[in-house]
């Protein structure tokens, strides 16, 4: 029994001798836990910040989507306006051609009427070189 008590005593001394080492390891683990705790807190703060940024960016995205829709609507309106302008231009070009033709016909009719009046006033004159497009020089 004494031998057994001596063995227990020796084992107890070894364990007591290992207590400072265990306390040192415990202290290191506690420091590590504090470091990890502060890191977790830091990461949680970053997560909150990123969450706020995500919300802000979602708002910006919504705003930009609305602007894109408005721009697309405006583009459709402008395209319709452009198409109407092209139609108006084509119509005006047609009217211009018709006006030129009417003017040419009117000039020809006036020329014919003038020649008829002059031939009534002076029946023997040759009108071969007379035209509404000739210019009077020194006359």
Short description:
This protein is mainly α and 139 residues long. The chain has one helix spanning 2-121.
Termini separation (Å)? Answer: 161 Å
Helix content: over 70%
Mean pLDDT: 85
How many helices does DSSP assign?
A: 1
- Which value, in Å, is the CA radius of gyration? 54 Å
Spell the H/E element sequence.
H
Number of strands: 0
Strand residue percentage = under 5%
Written description of the protein model:
This protein is mostly helical. The protein has 1 helix and no strands. The protein has one helix spanning 2-121.
Which key terms come to mind for this protein?
139 residues, mainly alpha, coiled coil
Draw up the topology in text.
Elements: H1 2-121
């Amino acid at each position: 029994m004494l031998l057994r008590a001596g063995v227990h005593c020796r084992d107890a001394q070894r364990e007591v001798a290992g207590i400072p080492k265990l306390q040192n390891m415990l202290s290191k683990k506690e420091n590590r836990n504090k470091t990890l705790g502060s890191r977790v807190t830091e990461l949680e703060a970053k997560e909150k910040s990123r969450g706020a940024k995500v919300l802000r960016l979602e708002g910006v995205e919504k705003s930009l989507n609305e602007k894109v829709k408005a721009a697309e609507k405006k583009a459709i309106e402008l395209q319709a306006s452009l198409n109407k302008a092209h139609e108006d231009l084509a119509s005006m070009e047609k009217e211009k051609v018709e006006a030129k033709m009417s003017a040419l016909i009117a000039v020809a009719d006036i020329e014919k009427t003038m020649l008829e009046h002059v031939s009534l006033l002076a029946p023997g004159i040759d009108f071969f070189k007379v035209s509404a497009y000739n210019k009077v020089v020194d006359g």
